[in-house]
Write a structure and sequence with these properties.
Blueprint (H helix, E strand, L loop, with lengths): L14 H11 L1 E2 L2 E2 H10 L6 E5 L15 H5 L9 E7 L1 H13 L5 E5 L2 H8 L6 E7 L2
Helix pairs in contact: 1-2
């Protein structure tokens, strides 16, 4: 597993490392991206992947309500995201990382999704037992 190095040139960074950098830069509401990323890196053995995004809300429109705020704010150099999704292998890793998030006060609402049917639908399938942790900052 590679460790996060913010000096890695963009052309050499993995997609995951780009997500880490977006998280590191995030400062919205109570989200302190550097704190959250530092905590995640301290507990790297508990998770497989991290994604900084927004919660999507669908209505009758064909576009998600508020789902393109990131697109709107790109000219201002702002990745306007309020939710971190963390993929963990196994319920125990998910439970332990949720405890870390609460114990180190990441400042967001921590929700653990461990229903395998729901998780598989969200991920588009997969043979492994995954858990998704969602941390949302209002």
């Amino acid at each position: 597993m590679r460790e996060f190095d913010p000096s890695t040139p963009l052309g050499d960074a993995t997609v995951q490392e780009i997500q880490w950098e977006l998280l590191r830069r995030a400062q919205h509401n109570a989200l302190d991206g550097e704190q959250v990323l530092g905590s995640l890196m301290k507990h790297r053995s508990l998770w497989t992947a991290v994604l900084l995004d927004r919660q999507l809300i669908w209505a009758r429109a064909r576009l998600p309500i508020g789902g393109l705020i990131k697109l709107r704010d790109l000219p201002d150099n702002d990745w306007n995201a309020d939710t971190v999704y963390i993929l963990c292998e196994g319920r125990e890793n998910g439970r332990r990382l949720a405890e870390v998030a609460r114990g180190e006060d990441w400042g967001g609402e921590v929700i653990v999704y461990d229903d395998q049917e729901e998780v598989a639908l969200s991920l588009g399938g997969g043979p492994d037992e995954y858990v998704i942790i969602k941390v949302w900052w209002d």
